[in-house]
């Protein structure tokens, strides 16, 4: 169960961390179906921040050339998608005239090679959108961490890091005994903070199993993701993909 406050936290955090649009109106493309959690970002960002929302036709979403043409025709400035969408755009290779300023990518591991190739193609076309890798389960209201992809540092490992906590979220990497792991040591990822939902509707046992008391902040809760990660630095965590 996701409440209004988690959605507000998500939108406000994305605005402050990524969009930074102020009073400027962004043209945002909605690729995800409305029943998929990723749609929350575009739908509610449009409602709460006064952005213009463009609902991309389903056939266009699955075709790289058609998607690029749609972005160009409607002067899209912000979009959210998966690594598959990036691969389709790279394969189409049609970047001339695009006005994209922000691209948020999540849902699965983002290949560093694909991200690097995309940014190079944009540079060749004379544009430079801000590419951000986002990560988070539905239980923590879509996005819990962000990592800006810097062109010069895009290929440092097989996958782009999931980054650092978004907004008032907190990321803990714990061992099996609930102890914080030092830098470079893998552990299970727990997410705490304002993005954590209430729990699962009518599933008290599963809620008790996954939504735990935060041992580091009295009275707060954290969500057990089941993902194995390691801390690379103060600004980035890497998700281990098996």
From TrEMBL:
Gene3D superfamilies: 3.40.50.980, Luciferase, Domain 3. InterPro entries: AMP-dep_synth/lig_dom. One of its GO terms (biological process) is secondary metabolite biosynthetic process. GO terms for cellular component: cytosol. One of its GO terms (molecular function) is phosphopantetheine binding. Residues 1-201 form the AMP-dependent synthetase/ligase domain. Transmembrane segments: none annotated. PANTHER family: FATTY ACID SYNTHASE, NONRIBOSOMAL PEPTIDE SYNTHETASE. This is Nonribosomal peptide synthetase.
């Amino acid at each position: 169960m996701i409440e209004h406050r988690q959605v507000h936290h998500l939108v406000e955090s994305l605005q402050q961390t990524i969009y930074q649009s102020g009073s400027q109106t962004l043209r945002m493309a909605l690729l995800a179906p409305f029943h998929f959690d990723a749609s929350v970002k575009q739908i509610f960002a449009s409602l709460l921040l006064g952005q213009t929302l463009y609902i991309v036709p389903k056939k266009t979403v699955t075709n790289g050339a058609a998607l690029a043409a749609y972005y160009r025709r409607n002067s899209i400035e912000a979009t959210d998608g998966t690594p598959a969408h990036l691969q389709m755009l790279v394969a189409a290779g049609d970047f001339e005239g695009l006005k994209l300023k922000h691209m948020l990518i999540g849902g699965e591991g983002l290949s560093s090679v694909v991200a690097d190739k995309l940014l190079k193609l944009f540079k060749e076309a004379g544009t430079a959108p801000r590419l951000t890798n986002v990560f988070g389960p539905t239980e923590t209201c879509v996005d819990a961490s962000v990592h800006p992809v810097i062109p010069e540092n895009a290929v440092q490992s097989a996958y782009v890091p999931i980054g650092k906590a978004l907004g008032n979220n907190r990321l803990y990497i714990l061992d099996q005994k609930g102890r914080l792991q030092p830098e470079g040591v893998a552990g299970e990822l727990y997410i705490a903070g304002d993005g954590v939902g209430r729990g699962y509707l009518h599933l008290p046992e599963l809620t008790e199993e996954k939504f735990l008391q935060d041992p580091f902040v009295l009275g707060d809760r954290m969500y057990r993701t089941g993902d194995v990660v390691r801390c690379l630095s103060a600004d980035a965590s890497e998700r281990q993909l098996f």
